[in-house]
Specification:
four-stranded mixed beta sheet, 293 residues, 3 domains, Trypsin Inhibitor V, Chain A, alpha/beta
Length: 293
């Protein structure tokens, strides 16, 4: 087995801690020898270590198989220490003419080392290409891709959400498309964004028809709206006080309802802990001067 080339360790992967830094926890090194390189990376990640440092070697083993590890299995080391793995990899030298495969010549040996550098660069690019499907998996995609992945399914991820919450809703949001435009879907989305479960009252509207001078007073107990069909109306009632939500949160709630409701319907957002008289004040009174002073 001949050492071909070693990839440098990532900065900050190991070494003594700086003064004042929190001491790294101790972890047991798992058994990695004999595993495929990708499986070994998964085991190391689940064990709590950083991504390992591979060292390509020529060995009688399948390509990208771990043939040796440092430290060995069972040792108790800091979680910040980078585990170095010797990975079997056939060199591209075998594709050269027989004359250039002889490493006894110093010039040929230098050419082999340069060729190994390009081989490792190629393998890194190939590994990134192989990992492209992970970008579309909510639980595996890097954190910086979460917002981009949410845009594919029209899911607005908020900046104040934790990474775990973003991944959870990215995973479940596609299932809501089968019930989009229904009461159940609106319930789920509003609960996701507000943290409380609202009441959705179908075929209702908070204002009744009125007759001037009989059942209402203009500008006091009346609201003038276009003709409404109660079959196409619903009321969203949140068990919160309007003062408990910032303005941007209320705007967000309206945006969700408008995006998810059927296009032909009208809605009214209200709060259980707020009276309608507190929300509406008369803007004009018959018989009084309505002009500003």
């Amino acid at each position: 087995m001949t050492d071909r080339h070693a990839m440098p360790a990532r900065p900050g992967a190991g070494g003594p801690s700086r003064p004042g830094e929190r001491r790294a926890k101790k972890l047991i090194v798992p058994e990695l020898t004999g595993m495929p390189w990708k499986d070994a990376c998964i085991v190391i990640d689940q064990a709590g270590f950083a991504r390992p440092t591979p060292r390509y070697v020529e060995a009688y083993a399948a390509d990208f198989t771990v043939v040796q590890q440092v430290p060995i299995r069972g040792q108790l080391i800091d979680s910040t220490v980078s585990i170095e793995l010797s990975v079997a990899r056939q060199s591209w030298v075998r594709f050269l003419p027989q004359l250039y495969q002889n490493t006894s010549d110093g010039a040929n040996h230098l050419a082999h080392e340069y060729l190994c550098i390009f081989q490792q660069l190629h393998d890194r690019i190939a590994e990134r290409i192989d990992r492209i499907p992970e970008l579309f998996q909510p639980l595996d995609t890097p954190p910086e891709f979460l917002t981009w992945l949410g845009s594919w399914i029209a899911l607005q991820l908020e900046a104040d959400w934790s990474e775990e919450k973003q991944r959870r809703w990215l995973r479940h949001a596609p299932m809501l498309y089968s019930i989009r435009g229904t009461k159940a879907a609106l319930h789920a989305l509003l609960e996701m964004y507000t943290g409380v479960r609202p009441d959705i009252l179908e075929n209702q509207w908070p204002f009744e028809p009125f007759r001037v001078g009989v059942s209402s007073e203009i500008g006091v107990t009346s609201t003038i709206l276009p003709p409404l069909n109660h079959a196409h109306c619903f009321v969203v009632e949140l068990p919160l006080a309007p003062t408990s939500l910032p303005d941007d949160q209320i705007v967000r709630i309206h945006r969700i309802i408008q995006a998810e409701k059927p296009a032909h319907t009208m809605y009214f957002l209200t709060f259980k802990q707020a009276a309608l008289s507190d929300d509406y004040q008369p803007f004009m009174t018959i018989g009084e001067d309505a002009m500003p002073e």
